[in-house]
Design brief:
Number of strands: 13
Number of helices: 9
Strand content: 15-25%
């Protein structure tokens, strides 16, 4: 596993100036963005997002440098090496893009991504991210509380789970030409997990639109779960009565449970979960239950055997 050295440039040199110098002064006026972002032909350009900083849910921990966040990640749709997403995702077209909301809801809807960005105020949330492989980062996401979107479509009484389906296009996503997983990538949450205030649909990081390799134009972020739960490049959100069959759950059910809450007491068959290596640090640190978000989310699992429901 590649661990980057301290030679990386400081985050203060690569973070958008507005994020650091005017972080507390971001415009309250919701959604989007820099001029030109929505114009045909330039929509994939990285542009600055106007977002409200939400300190209530953000960690004050040192943020992982932008360079590492955008060049070291798992995104098997573009290859299985950590560097593959940054190298192979650049031709992904993120405009036009739609997200279909369907299933057990009173008001199904197909959202154009730019209309979605305008419809909901954006928030910056600085979250810890823990990979099941034993490494971690701290990432300043920009996104929409998923609960805001869910309330608008009004789930029916039958809705108990939320399924997230990502883009399936082997012509653009070269990793999908290999049977690494049963494509498309599908993930899921219980409805109360999806409604939790910590759960967001991210559309940016470090104050800018998401780079393709990080899940552009819209991805899930659930900070108390291992990173693979946070589906990237979402095209469909479906509300279901039955628990969704996830991509990793179908591929290796003994290794990737549906819940996948960060749990230092339950090791993955191939990786201990007791400790983690924060990218940019030399020594490992203890992993925290629920990735340190236990005070906010542990009640969701009261009475559950978290060794059985891993």
């Amino acid at each position: 596993m590649l661990i980057r050295s301290t030679k990386d440039i400081p985050s203060s040199e690569i973070t958008p100036e507005a994020v650091y110098l005017r972080r507390r002064q971001f415009m309250q006026a919701g959604a989007v963005v820099a001029a030109g972002a929505l114009l045909p032909g330039v929509s994939e350009a990285s542009v600055r997002l106007a977002a409200v900083v939400n300190n209530r849910y953000s960690t004050p921990e040192k943020q992982t440098p932008y360079k590492d966040v955008t060049t070291y990640n798992n995104y098997y749709e573009f290859g299985t090496d950590k560097s593959d997403p940054a190298e192979n995702a650049q031709n992904l077209k993120t405009r036009p893009w739609t997200v279909s909301i369907e299933g057990e809801v009173k008001h199904p809807k197909v959202w154009d991504i730019d209309a979605l960005l305008k419809a909901f105020p954006l928030e910056e949330r600085i979250y810890r991210m823990r990979c099941v492989e034993g490494w971690s980062m701290v990432i300043p996401w920009v996104g929409i509380p998923l609960a805001s979107l869910i309330r608008q479509v009004e789930p029916t009484g039958n809705a108990k789970y939320v399924e997230f389906t990502t883009l399936h296009d082997p012509a653009q996503m070269t990793g999908q030409r290999r049977a690494v997983l049963d494509w498309p990538y599908i993930e899921g949450l219980r409805l109360d997990e999806a409604m939790h205030p910590l759960t967001i649909l991210a559309v940016g990081l470090y104050g800018q639109t998401l780079p393709n390799q990080n899940g552009a134009p819209i991805r899930l972020v659930v900070p108390w779960k291992y990173g693979f739960k946070s589906a990237k490049a979402i095209v469909r959100i479906r509300f279901t009565e039955q628990q969704p069959a996830t991509a990793w759950g179908r591929s290796a059910p003994s290794e990737y449970g549906f819940y996948s809450n960060v749990n230092p007491a339950v090791d993955h068959p191939r990786w201990s979960q007791a400790k983690e290596r924060r990218i940019g640090e030399f020594f490992k640190r203890d992993t925290l239950a629920f990735n340190g978000y236990g005070d906010q989310v542990a009640q969701l699992y009261r009475g559950m055997d978290l060794r059985k429901y891993y």
